[in-house]
Structure formats: structure tokens, C-alpha cells
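User: Hi! I'm working on a homework problem where we have to compare a predicted structure to a textbook description. Could you give me the structure for the chain below?
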Amino acid sequence: MDVTNVRKQRRAAVAQRLAAALAVVVVLLVGPASSWAAQPPATTAAQDGFVPVDESKPQERLPATPLLVAAYAVAWVVIFGYVWTLWSRLSRVEREIVEVSRRIDAGSRR
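Assistant: Happy to help. Predicted C-alpha cells:
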């Protein structure tokens, strides 16, 4: 197998992995936003009449949700970037090993 074909295949694999990672990040960022848009607007007690505090439904709100989602997205991007750099370094070492093996084989044939 030619070295250029191997490089092309690896680049294609990296492009696919990056596209998949980007899709995951987009889903993580857009998914919660669509659920926020689907919630009905909150009504006040003045609109519905008087409601004692004990009988009202508790509202669960997490005001830091967008920040949490952004933090997870950044963490995943950093993780994927780190894995990509490890993969890149490993492929470079593999190429060097193949080159050294070729040189050794060429030297032993003399």
C-alpha cells in the first residue's frame, strides 16, 4: 500500500471524526435551546387569580443551564482535540518506524 494512499485514508478518517464531533457539539448546543423555545410562557398570579404559595406548583429552573451546556461542549471539543493530537503524533511515529525499518532492510541487503 502506498504511503500517499494511507495518508489520504487517514485524512478522510480524521475528517469523518471531526464531522461527527461537530455534529455532537451542535446537538448539545441546539437541543436545549429548542426545548426552551417549546415551553409555554409563564403566567403571573395576577393573570390566574390569587394562588396561595402552598398550592402553587414548584418551578424548577436552572439559570446556569446555558453555561453548563457550553462548558460540556468546550470540554468535549478539548477532549476530541487532545485525542486528535495523540493520533497525529502516533501516526508520525509509525511513519518514522516504517522508514527506519526500510533503512535497516536496505542496509542489510548490501
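For your comparison, note the following. The mean pLDDT is 80. The longest helix spans residues 65-108. Good luck with the assignment!
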